[in-house]
Amino acid sequence: MRLTTKGRFAVTAMMDLAMRQSRGPVTLAAISERQHISLSYLEQLFGKLRRHQLVSSVRGPGGGYNLARAAGSVSVADIITAVDEPLDATQCGGKENCGDDDRRCMTHDLWERLNEKMYEYLSSVSLADLVAHHSGKHVAVLHDWRAAEKPKGETALAA
């Protein structure tokens, strides 16, 4: 499973917005310049984010975007879902027609469970967590699980 560019850019842009909105509305042109994301692409993403009430727009001189909710109440899963990015490791989109003859494949349950774990994790990480982590603050949910102490005889998986 891989997260698409759309989801990655949406999370990056929302993080940029969260880090700077205390100074007033943030323009998409400024996010575009800082994050090297096409302005037209950001306009598409922010249209979806606005429809899902994750951002609000301010028109006129000095206008731009603000978070519509507190950064602590916006999860990474909320952002990815808002831009229509399904988190799906199955080949069938959950339809169970991934195997031969449109039957369920032998590993369907494995990939479906991975979907649940990914969504669970991304739901547990808020925009505020990302900003805090970027600022060098301790955020437990973002720690690398590979760095955790392993039981005797067990090694961490290679990156």
Residue-averaged pLDDT: 84
- Number-wise, the strands total 2
Tell me the major beta sheet: 2 strands, antiparallel
Strand content: 5-15%
**How many helical stretches?**
6
List the uncertain runs: 154-159
- What's the arrangement of strands in the largest beta sheet? 1-2
CATH class: Mainly Alpha
Q: Termini, distance in Å?
A: 15 Å
Question: What does the model show?
Answer:
The chain has 159 residues and is mainly alpha-helical. Helix content is 43%, strand content 5%. It contains 6 helices and 2 strands. It has helices at residues 5-20, 28-35, 39-51, 76-82, 108-124, 127-134, and strands spanning 55-58, 64-67. A two-stranded antiparallel sheet has the order 1-2. A hairpin with a 5-residue loop joins strand 1 and strand 2 (64-67). The chain is elongated and about 60 Å long.
Descriptive terms for the model:
159 residues, mainly alpha, Arc Repressor Mutant, subunit A, 6 helices
Topology overview:
Layout: H1 5-20, H2 28-35, H3 39-51, E1 55-58, E2 64-67, H4 76-82, H5 108-124, H6 127-134
Antiparallel strand pairs: 1-2
Helix pairs in contact: 1-2, 1-3, 1-4, 1-6
Quick summary:
By secondary structure, the chain is mainly α. It is built from six helices and two strands.
